[in-house]
Amino acid sequence: MQPMTLALTGDVMLGRLVDESVIRNHALPPETVWGDVCPLLLGADLLLINLECVISDRGREWRPDSKAFHFRADPRAIEVLRAAEIDGVTLANNHVLDYGPEALRDCLERLDAAGIQHTGAGTTLAQALEPMYLATSSGTVTVIGLTDNEPEWEATDRTAGVHFIRYGTGGLIEPYRERLSRLIRSARQRAQLVILSAHVGPNWGSPSRAMQALAHDLIDLGADLYWGHSNHTPQGIELYRHRAILYAAGDFVDDYAVDPAERNDLSFLFVAELEQGRVAQIRLVPVAIDEFRVRLAKGTERTFLERTMERKCAAFGTPVRWRQGQGTILV
């Protein structure tokens, strides 16, 4: 595999106010959502996001009386994804079935029609488990999506849902461990780089012992990179067996209320630089959510991100080198 860049984001939620104010405002071009970060997204050889909503104009709210938030974006959101030339989206999360199987099926069809690959959810268990294979001039990258959210959404042979897993302080619990082992082995036969996309854990707080055990287990099973999300703020990066574990990439685009201490409106674009079939280093590009779109962070925002990320990485013994407003982690 020749040198190339792989850009990863945290949660991209295009529903609610993002949908109303930006996506369905046809006076604004689709790339508006990506702000001045768009050139960096377009410059990556591969770009992957966690899509924290369903893209459809169909379906009904899953459980409006008990589930607090339901996220759905207008079909024009497909143009928003295409404007950034997004190669693939992970769908194993707690919002992809907010509007039921009909909306999920519609979303999958729209992604397919746009040539945007996906993993982690499907109309059957087989489709939810299917990795996405991204062919590049330097080799094939594969991504497997999974989540521990919404157990009732676990896909079966007959019902739509997500690639759901269970784990504890010892890592994956059977039969999920054996299934992931088979998936990773199969992916390895077709790809030079295997990425595990994990939407796991709570919205806040540092990674638990069980989450760390899960990440280690997946690396032990053969994954080259662990790409976590679900937490609203970016968490520390651990280097384990010469592989990088991104415990949580934070929020990238949304309309959420901002916690003044946690600053969930601040995160990073994570750019993995691949050399000789492995992740050689990860660049951290500070970003901020502003008016329902993302932009490059500045001033005190960057200072906050540098200090908090350096502290969180230090908990795993991972040094971060900061230069010209960006961080670098050597793997």
Automatic annotation (TrEMBL):
Query: What residues form the membrane-spanning segments?
Result: none
Boundaries of every Capsule synthesis protein CapA domain copy = 5-256
- InterPro entries linked: Capsule_synth_CapA, CW_Biosynth-Accessory, Metallo-depent_PP-like
For this protein, the record's SUPFAM superfamilies field holds:
Metallo-dependent phosphatases
Family of the protein in this entry: Belongs to the CapA family.
Q: What is this protein called?
A: PGA_cap domain-containing protein
Q: Which organism is it from?
A: Nitrospira tepida
